[in-house]
Amino acid sequence: MATGWGSLLQDEQQLEELARQAVDRALAEGVLLRTSQEPSSSDVVSYAPFTLFPSLVPSALLEQAYAVQMDFNLLVDAVSQNAAFLEQTLSSTIKRDNFTAHLFDIHKQVLKEGIAQTVFLGLNRSDYMFQRNADGSATLKQIEINTISASFGGLASRTPAVHRHVLNVLGKTKEAAKILSNNPSKGLAMGIAKAWELYGSANARVLLIAQEKERNIFDQRAIENELLARNIHVIRRKFEDVSEKGSLDQDRRLFMDGQEVAVVYFRDGYMPSHYSLQNWGARLLLERSCAVKCPDIATQLAGTKKVQQELSRSGMLEVLLPGQPEAVARLRATFAGLYSLDMGEEGDQAITEAIAAPSCFVLKPQREGGGNNLYGEEMVQALERLKDSEERASYILMEKIEPEPFGNCLLRPGSPARVVQCISELGIFGVYVRQGKTLVMNKHVGHLLRTKAIEHADGGVAAGVAVLDNPYPV
Ligand code: ADP
Ligand code: MG
């Protein structure tokens, strides 16, 4: 696999000038974040960190990731409808993990009362790394799938123009033309619009559940803007607002400030810190309603790492997607090694192996948002501590993916441009809509490439580690 831009990365003076141009273009295109000092205000904003050059990605792996996305959509949708599978899979985890237990409680309550919602909307992002093989080739391996608040579809629509600009400045017009156009926010909005339409109430709103401190607001606005262009109005509210001003009528229609809500789009609610007792109450109210939740609570649970691990068990995909051997084969080809830490022999063995070869494994709790996984010596210490406790069932072990590093230059507000050895993570956005038992939309709608310096084990742009990038197909 060819790895880079070679001599361009060595000319410091040229890099500095290119970086200035790239940053100005990024600002002009709207590749923006609010600052960490002022996360609730758009008075002062800056650019979202990004790579100076697009990173080389084998076309075949890009195509493979796109081709398997509709299968992942089907799989998530199947898991979310399979209450027995969710119950069995999460039973050991929820004994020891309060957050997952709370989500599961709501899921059970909704099932008991009967699900009022008839239209289901999934907006997800499946993330991959490129495992380096001995012969120099690379294999696509899934890191995880995000079924709630999958972000950066808006900003990823704007970064291709920045990388084309950089290459055009260098006179590399042919290379610039190879950068793929990308518009996930449009596709995500299309899914929301379809769900809104099927809900079938002309004046109903889309309710975006937002955080008070939201640095990534421009990413969300990109979707809001696409919806408004279709004459669908979005209201942004916090969980606290839902507690105070949200209500259900006798048909469990959801109203917010007196306005009917067709679709609830969560950009909050995926971490324990997002929930006070009051916010859990608000989530339950939303889940009980007949509004289309994106995601509904079962689909959020389908995105847990424990579910990911159980799906990799031999025979499991065949049960969940009966009669679809080709989809099963495409899905399985992307699975890395995943190991249960439930009490018992299988878990004991996984722990022994991870302690013996810490660089080959990652220890993952049931968390989202970056910065929660344990690697290396920290992982070993945690495993030693957890070994004899049932708490270990709230974690999973995963094979550590080792991509081939390459050079790129990372640009961040307030830091000098830095040429470093990097690895990338590719995300593909998927959208599906189901009405009752009928799937009415199943699509892939774009990609996100994030790149980070190799010294960071964990990732995430919001976590301050990875930066936005574009694949340069080779
Ligand atoms: P989160 O829900 O916090 O995003 P992830 O499973 O995506 O959790 O892990 C966070 C980051 O950790 C990823 O973006 C990636 O950089 C790194 N990571 C996770 N799993 C692996 C793995 N199996 N091999 C290598 N790196 C990993
Ligand atoms: Mg992730």
TrEMBL record:
Residues reported in the UniProt entry to bind ATP: 144, 305, 364-373, 375, 398-401, 425, 452, 458
Domain of life (superkingdom): Eukaryota
Entries under InterPro entries matching the protein: Glutathione_synthase (IPR005615), Glutathione_synthase_a-hlx (IPR014042), Glutathione_synthase_C_euk (IPR014709), Glutathione_synthase_N_euk (IPR014049), GSH-S_sub-bd_sf (IPR037013), GSH_synth_subst-bd (IPR004887), PreATP-grasp_dom_sf (IPR016185)
Required cofactor names: Mg(2+)
GO molecular function terms listed in the Swiss-Prot or TrEMBL record: ATP binding; glutathione binding; glutathione synthase activity; magnesium ion binding
Residues at which Mg(2+) binds: 144, 146, 368
Pfam families in alphabetical order: GSH_synth_ATP, GSH_synthase
Cofactor: how and how many bound: Binds 1 Mg(2+) ion per subunit.
Keyword annotations: Acetylation, ATP-binding, Glutathione biosynthesis, Ligase, Magnesium, Metal-binding, Nucleotide-binding, Phosphoprotein
Glutathione synthase substrate-binding domain location: 205-302
Annotated catalysed reactions: gamma-L-glutamyl-L-cysteine + glycine + ATP = glutathione + ADP + phosphate + H(+)
Residues that hold substrate according to the record: 125, 148-151, 214-216, 220, 267-270, 450, 461-462
Pathway involvement of the protein, from the record: Sulfur metabolism; glutathione biosynthesis; glutathione from L-cysteine and L-glutamate: step 2/2
Record EC number: 6.3.2.3
CC terms in the record's Gene Ontology section: cytosol
Family the entry assigns: Belongs to the eukaryotic GSH synthase family.
Complex formation: Homodimer.
Name of this protein: Glutathione synthetase
Organism: Lipotes vexillifer (Yangtze river dolphin)
Gene that this sequence comes from: GSS
